Amino acid sequence: MPTELVRCTGVARTYGRGDAAVVAIHGLTATVRTGELIAVTGPSGSGKSTVLHLFAGLDSPTAGTITWPGLGGDPTGRPGAVGFVFQGPSLLAPLTAVENVALPMLLAGVTPAEAAARAATALGLVDAAALSQRLPEELSGGQAQRVAVARVLAARPALILADEPTGQLDATHRDQIITVLIETARHLGAALVVSTHDQRVATRLRRQWRIRDGRLCTDAGPAPVPTTDRTAGDLTC
């Protein structure tokens, strides 16, 4: 039986106050369970990134409730429970690529030897082994993003969140990264939630949550996936 990792009930997120207030998310009611592969699609500014930040505990709702029953509560104090691939640069400048990948594991109590071995393996999976000793300033945007993906994979999280993870990648690396994310999630029994503008990425995932004006609509899976192989959506417009 799949475990509920994240549960949102009537969640809203507003930025600013008064006339300047912007409601980024309205009435988000959704559940993410182990093993689910979910694409969050929608135009720029629709709230995709806010949804992922709320799921990760990196942002707090201004209304409604969000809980993490399958993660033992708020994951922000436990490195490794949630892996987040950010849309922008997220590597620590003083550390090499392999040190960036190993850091979350060290913070979670993994031994240095195991962290180093898992970091090297993860870099190889994303075709970045040759970059292991480079500093972030020596990497292109696409190379840095592949290292950021490796950092998440190596930590073996229960919930993988990726915010436009292929935005800076060419077609070859785009397909490779999505394949690695999906295969890793399946191997770990983790959930994978990816926000994306790219329909070629979205159709690789089993469920699609379409967001419009800060509201998640009834989810739809890509046509090649049989109806019996999908979890019914929780969401309504």
Automatic annotation (TrEMBL):
<dbReference type="GO" id="GO:0016887">
    <property type="term" value="F:ATP hydrolysis activity"/>
</dbReference>
<feature type="domain" description="ABC transporter">
    <location>
        <begin position="6"/>
        <end position="235"/>
    </location>
</feature>
<keyword id="KW-0067">ATP-binding</keyword>
<protein>
    <submittedName>
        <fullName>ATP-binding cassette domain-containing protein</fullName>
    </submittedName>
</protein>
<dbReference type="GO" id="GO:0005886">
    <property type="term" value="C:plasma membrane"/>
</dbReference>
<dbReference type="GO" id="GO:0022857">
    <property type="term" value="F:transmembrane transporter activity"/>
</dbReference>
<dbReference type="Pfam" id="PF00005">
    <property type="entry name" value="ABC_tran"/>
</dbReference>
<dbReference type="InterPro" id="IPR003439">
    <property type="entry name" value="ABC_transporter-like_ATP-bd"/>
</dbReference>
<dbReference type="InterPro" id="IPR003593">
    <property type="entry name" value="AAA+_ATPase"/>
</dbReference>
<dbReference type="InterPro" id="IPR027417">
    <property type="entry name" value="P-loop_NTPase"/>
</dbReference>
<dbReference type="InterPro" id="IPR017871">
    <property type="entry name" value="ABC_transporter-like_CS"/>
</dbReference>
<dbReference type="GO" id="GO:0005524">
    <property type="term" value="F:ATP binding"/>
</dbReference>
<dbReference type="InterPro" id="IPR015854">
    <property type="entry name" value="ABC_transpr_LolD-like"/>
</dbReference>
<keyword id="KW-0547">Nucleotide-binding</keyword>
